[in-house]
């Protein structure tokens, strides 16, 4: 699957994320106005004196009118946001796992990470995949202008692309494991750091080695090949990018509905 095609579909699915920002801005303005009214009303001496002079019936009626209105407005905005996300293109479609995908996917509802597992020649391989960092517009490019001025240009180039954080753990039966902190970009996987762990005697291996970029270039390439052979490669991570965008949308809708239920209760 070409990443350009994946990213086009991913960008469409990321539209609810953009609407999320606009919705949050509207919600913030509405909430701020409501909070301001309530704060002034509750703290103002004039309000206290006015309330004391008002009849109990009128005061009760005013409170009864104002109190439900804030919840009603919040419920309307929540439902509006739910409708926007659910009506977005491809919302009901499920990202299909490609044939020959080397990992078993464990995706728990309500969690922000997905776990991949597999066995390879006696090794146990676990990959923890986090939510993607999306960069889809000109504003994101402007935010990274300073990064583009890096000496080698590498960091600036990758920082302007969408990415998926990965934690790859390759374990042996004797308790030793290699842990790779990675970032998956379009058609490229960057290893940020690696460390050697011992689940039975952590203190014996306190030294975790030098920074990955300080390693010999040939050694860096060898580690990349090491992960590729075990299934951590661009064709895998490109699929994960699309999969995690889909998960993010679903978790967001679920969260909105849970909040709405709380406000309604």
CATH fold label of the largest domain: Mitochondrial Matrix Protein, Chain A
Percent of residues in helices comes to: 40-55%
In terms of per-residue confidence, which ranges show pLDDT below 50 for 5 or more consecutive residues?
17-64
Tally of domains = 2
Q: CATH superfamily membership of the largest domain, which one?
A: Mitochondrial glycoprotein
Largest sheet: 6 strands, antiparallel
Gyration radius from CA atoms, angstroms: 25 Å
CATH architecture annotation of the largest domain: Roll
Global outline: elongated
Proportion of residues in extended strands: 15-25%
Description:
With 265 residues, the protein is an alpha+beta fold. It folds into 2 domains: 8-92; 104-249, Mitochondrial glycoprotein (Mitochondrial Matrix Protein, Chain A, Roll). 51% of the residues lie in helices and 18% in strands. The chain contains 8 helices and 6 strands. A 6-stranded antiparallel β-sheet has the order 1-2-3-4-5-6, with helices on one face. Strand 5 and strand 6 (188-198) form a beta hairpin. Helix 1 (3-13) packs parallel to helix 8 and helix 4 (56-86) runs antiparallel to helix 8. It is elongated, with a radius of gyration of 25 Å. The chain starts with a helix and ends with a helix. Mean pLDDT is 74; it is low at 17-64.
